[in-house]
What we know:
By secondary structure, the protein is an alpha/beta fold. The protein has a single domain, classed as Sugar-phosphate isomerase, RpiB/LacA/LacB (Ribose 5-phosphate Isomerase B, Chain: A). It contains 6 helices and 5 strands. It has helices spanning about 10-25, 45-55, 70-75, 90-100, 115-125, 130-150; strands spanning about 1-5, 30, 60-65, 85, 105. A 5-stranded parallel beta sheet has the order 2-1-3-5-4, sandwiched between helices. Strand 1 (about 1-5), helix 1 and strand 2 form a beta-alpha-beta unit. The longest helix is centred in the last third of the chain and has 17 residues, at about 130-150.
Amino acid sequence: MKIALGTDHAGIGLKKDVIAVIQKLGHEVVDVGCNCSDSVDYPDYALPVCEQVVAGTADRGILICGTGIGMSIAANKVPGIRCALVHDVFSAKATREHNDTNVLAMGERVIGPGLAEEIVKEWLSTAFSGGERHVNRVNKVMAIEDKYRQV
């Protein structure tokens, strides 16, 4: 898989660890930045990750900021993105199985590198269950998006 990765200044410390995990699992990383510790705006990095996922040039995306909240909010404004803010392994698995998420958000100030590694491993290795009830629910979420999509 090709994984687009974006961080703001508050996620830069966890970035190298997440890249290492992705590569160790045999996936390709597309790093959209940031590459500095100067204060930057998280939407500037969430958007290119999500655009790659929606365009199909990346299979999934991972976003990291201080809490993961800002990144997840920005990501979920992009039509076609289902981003989950995750800080535990159980949620990483559930959000793939039940919600078919295509973007993962995490907060460096909330979790450490060891937990981030386990979350990324679980999220990348878990498939969408495809069960009727989960497909129905995801379709309902996408219908809400379609209702409010600007043309």
